[in-house]
Amino acid sequence: MSTATAFDYSTRHEPVSDLFRWPRTEQEWDQYRLSPEQVAFFHTNGYLPKIRILTSEQVEFLRSELAELMQPEHPGRELWYEYHSNESGDPNNVLFHALGAWRLRPGLHDILWSPAFVMAASQLLGGSVRFWHDQLFCKPARHGGVVAWHQDYSYWTRTKPMNHLTCWIGLDKSTVDNGCVQYVPGSQNWDLLPITGLAGDMAAIRKVLNDEQWAQLQNPVPCEMDAGEGVFHHPLMVHGSQANRTDIPRRAIVLNAFRDGTISDSDEPLLAGVPPIPRSQKMQGQFFPLLFEPKPGGSC
Questions:
Q1: Do 157 and 258 contact (CB within 8 A), yes or no?
Q2: Which of 122, 161, 166, 108 is CA-nearest to residue 283?
């Protein structure tokens, strides 16, 4: 059994492969630019679905890298911030969840510089985009578990201000039946909620909601998408996903970013194994690279 240490791609703050082509002109960037209507939809509803992030070829390449990383004894396992082969603990409701894949494989590193991702993120954040961390969420066929209702920023209060953004990217077609992401439109205007758990009880959030909020939660909007499409959402957007009982897996990459200038609000490590950034200091350095910086009057 190999015990080799993988190269740590966090030391590279630019694409290391040719999986994604970086546009060279304003005209080339235009194909990735969100319309004013899309930006307005995001700010009104708290999410923006069905944005094409990956080609079919890129999806296949990333699936192959993911398959390697789902084998527990893969090289580089010491680089993960978190690694849960089944965060639920229930073999009948499996939720693979891991943070830090960008450090382990070239494709999962380079997706941070996907032109469609960085352009949309810059428009929705209103400025330069800096990386926070990635996540893998995988539900196997027939016995895939849930991701319980939650707000992302409930887990991120060690950074401030709340200039964060999440992009969920499917590596499979996601449907209601196999556990697509579902949203409560407008919940980005709710107050910050306490953490009530990520894998297990979909109803756990009830104890921190008032009756009106609970009533809204009864009619979530499912976000069904094709493989390679992504959905962006606000850090206070309440979202979750049901179990997968179909014959196809539901695998996803999640990219979390924030606007450049966000600062640390903790003297403790912000991610496992990452040196602390002192409170009130800017989030930057090896583990929080700058991904995209729009130029005045331009985009590249």
A1: no
A2: 161
Domain 37-70+83-270 matching CATH 3.60.10.10: the answer reads no
Model pLDDT, residue 2: 39
Buried b (16+ CB within 10 A) or exposed e, 84-100: bebbbeeeebbbbbbbb
The DSSP symbol for 90 reads -
Residue 229: helix, strand or coil by DSSP? Answer: strand
Mark 197-208 as b/e (b = at least 16 C-beta within 10 Å): ebbbebeebeee
Contact indicator for 79, 104 with CB cutoff of 8 Å: yes
pTM value surpassing 0.85: yes
Domain segments of the chain as ranges: 37-70+83-270
Q: Is the dihedral of CA 66, 17, 231, 133 positive or negative?
A: positive
pLDDT band at 209 (very low <50, low <70, confident <90, very high): very high
Query: Residue 184: pLDDT above 90?
Result: yes
**Do 182 and 221 touch, CB atoms closer than 8 A?**
yes
Q: What are 228-243's pLDDT values in tens digits?
A: 999 999 999 999 999 9
Please report which residue ranges of the chain form alpha helices under DSSP H. Answer: 26-30, 36-45, 56-69, 106-110, 115-125, 211-217
How far is CA 65 from each of CA 62, 80, 85, 300, rounded to the nearest angstrom?
Answer: 5, 15, 16, 29
The radius of gyration of the chain from alpha carbons, rounded to an integer in Å, stands at: 18
